[in-house]
Amino acid sequence: MRRSGESEQGPPFAATDTEWWHQATFYQVYVRSFADFDGDGVGDLEGIHSRLGYLELLGVDALWLTPFFTSPMADHGYDVADPRDVDPVFGDLAGFDRLVADAHKHGIKVTIDLVPNHTSDLHPWFVEALESPPYSAARDRYIFRDGRAGGAQPPNNWVSVFGGPAWTRVADEQWYLHLFAPQQPDLNWADDEVRADLERTLRFWLDRGADGFRIDVAHGMAKPAELPDMDLRAVGVIGDHDFYDPRFDDDGVHDIHRMIRKVMDEYPGAMAVGEVWVTDNHRLANYLRSDELHLGFNFRLVLAEFDAAAVRTAIEESLRTAATADAPPAWTLSNHDVWREVSRYGGGEVGTRRARAMALVELALPGVVFVYNGEELGLPNVDLPDWALQDPMWERSGHTDRGRDNCRVPIPWEGDLPPFGFSPGDETWLPMPAEWAALTVERQLEDADSTLSLYRQAIELRKTHDAFAGDALEWYGAPEGCFAYRRKGGGLICALNMSDIAVPLPPGEVLLASGPLDEGYLPPDTAAWLV
Ligand code: NOJ
Mean of the per-residue pLDDT values for the chain? Predict the structure, then answer.
């Protein structure tokens, strides 16, 4: 590969002590699926506590725990009935305190999910709203409206993200808005009590030692007062589009983020990363202004095909956003809402090879990386039988969309048979495939070539090697279907081959490779780090 014209990218993400997250590797714990301590087949806080040694061995700096708050679990915890308590399925507040204290002893920060766009329909506020008359203060905490066409039609044409209309009619014939499931009524962010309550929740967890938040639907919350119809061509389009969609990214949302940031600034070192499904660079950068979110997920790598040009563009655009915002980019390849990358990139051995290559591409980048639990084991999606499906998307779509359970199957820890040490019981909330015997943590720890070993080495190098210094990248010229970039500060080179033939490696000493190399050549579906 030949070196070409330099293109300087990336802002100076100079980190101070309170900015521990600037180059951090986060690990997303999907709490239901990580480790079950009490044997009910559902992961819990004590399970996470019991696996802190593993997380330290993996080398991650911080955790993001998905919602563990009191919830009827219509959307597995993203329907919160009490944001300041732990659901008994997951443990209790004392268990949370223990987890935070001991994670800190292992050098791991703990960030938690915040769900401010909506509550559960069993939240006392919503129960009160249903018991109260139209136009009452209790209803005004949510978005209730009269219907159109004499009341029989929903107030506008908005569609729920989970399928079907975004409105449900109540007994007195008013309608309420839910951008997700009907059990997740949207809050009215023009209401002062709603704001005051979130502030209380922020302080509640920060006072207990949480190091920050992942903010759910951080591009939601605010809605235009007149609730205009959306362009229905936006439905189901994830990523770039120009269709008018007033459900999300309303300008009023920034005022809410400023309120959140004001509270967080009282807690030095606390950080917030937003789930912002906005691809326009400038609109995304708006969320990262110095008085708003610290970080915003950039989902471009999730959306990019396994194609050199597409991945390079995703990286360049993400760096552009970060530079505009003067904030570190936040990279992710997957999470509990999207297909696991092994399956996305083709499944089987090919998918695994490609996912390993993309892990090195991601972990060589400047900024913050989020690893989704199981990604480090190379877990694929699981084809679950109909009876096992629990995601509300399955029902809401009239059984046309199988939903997200396929990427949420519990983690295989050890042994030869399900539940592979995930639970002391026999049953797990989603069935675990027998063939995962080959993918357990135990097996992979013993194998120097396993995906887990690759992640451990990569995370360690990323954290300790000088070659990872600096925030800017330069791109090399590369054969068709390949790319290589160099960290300008430290000099690390990351080369990726997505073509069908082996290509010469750039000059340098190989630090790590995602698969076997061939005497100076980089085989297809392989990435290498060189210095
Ligand atoms: C995004 C979360 O990641 C997803 O799992 C959830 O269903 C929706 N927000 C609604 O809270």
Answer: 95
Where helices occur in 326-432 by DSSP H, the ranges are: 341-344, 348-363, 392-396
pLDDT tens across 168-193, in order? Answer: 999 999 999 999 999 999 999 999 99
Instruction: Give me the mean pLDDT over the 236-258 stretch.
Output: 93
Beta strands in 105-252 (DSSP E): 109-114, 144-145, 167-169, 175-177, 212-215
pLDDT value of position 2: 35
Residue 11 CA to residue 471 CA, distance in Å, equals 6
Other beta carbons within 10 angstroms of residue 152's beta carbon come to: 9
Q: How far is the CA of 302 from the centre of ligand 1 (A)?
A: 16
Distance CA 514, CA 364 (A): 12
pLDDT tens, position by position, 471-485: 999 999 999 999 999
Q: Are strands 295-298 and 330-332 parallel, antiparallel or unpaired?
A: parallel
pLDDT at 219: 98
Q: Residue 416 and residue 443: Cα distance in Å, rounded?
A: 10
CATH architecture of residue range(s) 124-177: Alpha-Beta Complex (3.90)
Task: Determine which residue's CA is closest to atom 4 belonging to ligand 1.
Answer: 337
- Angstrom distance (rounded) from CA 136 to CA 139: 5
Catalytic annotation present for 266 = yes
Of the candidates 148, 180, 154, which has an alpha carbon nearest to the alpha carbon of residue 167? 154
Q: Using CB atoms within 10 A of its CB, is residue 398 exposed (0-12), middle (13-18) or buried (19+)?
A: exposed
Angle at 207 between CA 204 and CA 208, to 5 degrees: 85
Please report, as a single letter, which amino acid is at residue 299: F
**What's the token pair of residue 324?**
């505009």
Query: What confidence tier does 16 reach under pLDDT thresholds 50, 70, 90?
Result: low
* Pairing assessment for the beta strands 82-86 and 493-497 based on DSSP bridges: unpaired
Whether the pLDDT of residue 13 is over 70: the answer is no
Q: What is the distance between the alpha carbons of residues 494 and 488, in angstroms, rounded to a whole number? A: 12
In this predicted structure, what is the pLDDT of residue 14?
44
- According to CATH, the topology of domain 17-119+192-458 is TIM Barrel (3.20.20)
Q: Which residue has the higher pLDDT, 2 or 258?
A: 258
Going from the Cα of 79 to the center of ligand 1, the distance in angstroms, rounded, reads 9
Nearest to 35 by CA among 417, 412, 437: 412
86 Cα: distance to centroid of ligand 1 (angstroms)? 18
Q: Of the candidates 379, 353, 315, which has an alpha carbon nearest to the alpha carbon of residue 513?
A: 353
Domain residue ranges of the chain, discontinuous segments joined by +: 17-119+192-458, 124-177
Lowest mean per-residue pLDDT among 100-114, 235-249, 409-423: 235-249
Residues with CB under 6 A from ligand 1: 75, 78, 115, 180, 216-217, 275, 336-337
Average pLDDT over residues 67-80: 98
Q: Fold identical between 17-119+192-458 and 124-177?
A: no
- Report the nearest atom of ligand 1 relative to the CA of 162: 7
Q: Going by DSSP bridges, is the β-strand pair 212-215/271-274 parallel, antiparallel, or unpaired? A: parallel
Indicate if the pLDDT at residue 392 is higher than 70.
yes
Cα 442 from Cα 304, distance rounded (Å): 32
Cβ atoms of 189 and 195 within 8 Å: the answer is yes
Give the per-residue pLDDT at 236.
Answer: 85
